[in-house]
Amino acid sequence: MTLVSEKKRLREVARAKRVQLAHACPDFANSIAAFADALSVGSGTKISGYVAMGDEADPAMLVEVLKARGCEICYPRVHKGQPLTFHVPVEGEHWITSTFGVQEPRPDWPRANPTILLVPLLAFDADGYRLGYGGGYYDRTLAHLRGQGVVTAIGIAFAGQEVERLPRDARDEKLDAVVTEEGFRRFRRA
Prior knowledge:
Layout: H1 3-24, H2 28-33, E1 46-48, H3 60-68, E2 72-77, E3 85-87, E4 96-97, E5 103-104, E6 111-112, E7 116-119, E8 123-125, E9 130-131, H4 137-148, E10 152-156, E11 162-163, E12 177-180, E13 183-186
């Protein structure tokens, strides 16, 4: 089995499992907001959130707590085959829906350079690797940002999304930490 076909199979399994986990934990967003202190971020920190779709682990309440503490919140915008760009929402203006069906900031909203990224995923392992959706957007973005300086990637996940070990190659970027309904956990650096 090739790496691509193995990841494709794992994505199907992980999607089905995540539906069950989301149903079993309807208060997920509020649960993870309680772990905001563990992120150890100060006022003015630029943090990228995301708008959860369907049964994704929802960071909305955690983002609200961080915003109330003075963090600058921005959101990713997809550019096919390129790293994500990040934009700060403009109050009163409407978001747009991308070709992938994702709620995104408008391209004319102010750009931002986050130092912390909250990252959606389908699965993660104890080494900090994540299984994404297959487009490579977060891997490209993390590689790009890490090449420019320090950036912290924090997965947002249901605890039950953890698997023993994910297949990986040189393009797969590690998470620095994960927040689940059970708490905040840092991964060992390689």
